[in-house]
Amino acid sequence: MRFGPARLSKRARWAAACAALLLLGGGFVAYEEFIADDNVCCALPPPLYNVPRGPDGEIDIASQSTEPEVLVGHDFSIHVRPGGDADDWRLAESGESGGVVRAKGEKTVKGTRYFRFRALRTGTARIVLKEIDGERTMTYALTVKEGTQVSGVEHDPDEILPTDRTSPPDDGRGTDEVRVLDGDFDSTVTVPAGQTFRIANRYANQPGYTWRFVAEPDGPVLGQGDSEAPDVGDGAAVRQDWYEFYARDKGIAKVKLFGCYRCGYGEWPETAESKRFSLTKTLTVNVS
After folding, report:
1. I need a surface site. Which of 32, 100, 153, 160 has the fewest CB within 10 A?
2. In Å, how far are 130, 131, 207 from 107, measured between CA atoms?
3. Residue 1 DSSP label
């Protein structure tokens, strides 16, 4: 019977090759962990510039994103900020079925929850987050690509204003000129003719709502105000978008706002998810 050298496993052969390179002074650095299918990433991923980072240095994606892009070999996270009626979300679909990404668990830092993943190979993956105590979902059509820079990552806006504001910031206009109403946009208000007033649309923007008038409020009873009303709050959580109007004459006017749920740059919902959770708010104004 002939005896030859024992056959090494794939992992053992790879480890031996790495050790040989280190002895030869090749400067090779192996990545820190093995992937479940016994393949390893061969080197540290290249640095990225002007890309939002998570708590562990990974590519970070805001919850409002709809079609993010990441790079092969990089870790990434999808984060959900605290606040509003959508504080608690869970991972409903991890996107692992096609072998493009692998889930790495969750991490909470200062109230913000990070759902963490690794991009294994090029392709597309569907990741879905779902409210723990609700029905809303957030679906991500993720693309993993080769390259040295990522361009399709949406992140939170800079200079976020406090979330505890109940009225718009002072813009130098006196209270006699602009009346700030306490109600929400989806309500009925009464104002005198000749009054300029502001009212807020309050909502949780974690999933990503885009708002627009169904029809421009311009008629004999009501028109839009002359100044641009400010937005207040956290652009990735609880916020208040203020709208300014001018009461022209006695009568009743209705103003409708359409909130497109995770529609990206589109004006109308296209996916089943967007159609289900988009909504319309109606402001009824009685001018006396």
Report:
1. 32
2. 16, 17, 19
3. -
Measured CA to CA in angstroms, residue 133 lies from 81, 123, 169 at distances of 16, 32, 33
Closest CA to 103 of 114, 116, 113: 116
Residue 263, judged by CB atoms within 10 A of its CB (0-12, 13-18, 19+), counts as buried
Identify the residue whose tokens are 């984060």: 79
CA distance 288 to 272: 42
Please state, in angstroms and rounded to a whole number, the distance separating the CA atoms of residues 91 and 260. Answer: 23
Per-residue pLDDT of the chain (288 residues; tens, 9 = 90+): 444 444 545 455 545 544 443 333 433 333 333 334 444 444 556 667 778 889 999 999 999 999 999 999 999 999 998 875 546 899 999 999 999 999 999 999 988 899 999 999 999 999 999 998 888 999 999 999 998 777 777 766 544 444 444 555 555 444 458 999 988 899 999 999 999 999 999 998 889 999 999 988 889 999 999 888 888 888 888 889 999 999 999 999 999 999 999 997 777 899 999 999 999 999 999 999
Structure tokens at 41: 């990433």
Are residues 168 and 232 in contact, defined by beta-carbon separation less than 8 angstroms? yes
Q: Is 257 exposed, middle or buried (0-12, 13-18, 19+ CB in 10 A)?
A: buried
Distance, in Å, from the CA atom of 198 to the CA atom of 185, rounded to the nearest integer, reads: 10
What is the C-alpha to C-alpha distance for residues 79 and 60, in angstroms, rounded to an integer? 7
Q: Cβ distance 237 to 84 under 8 Å?
A: yes
- Scan for tokens 């479940």, then name that residue: 36
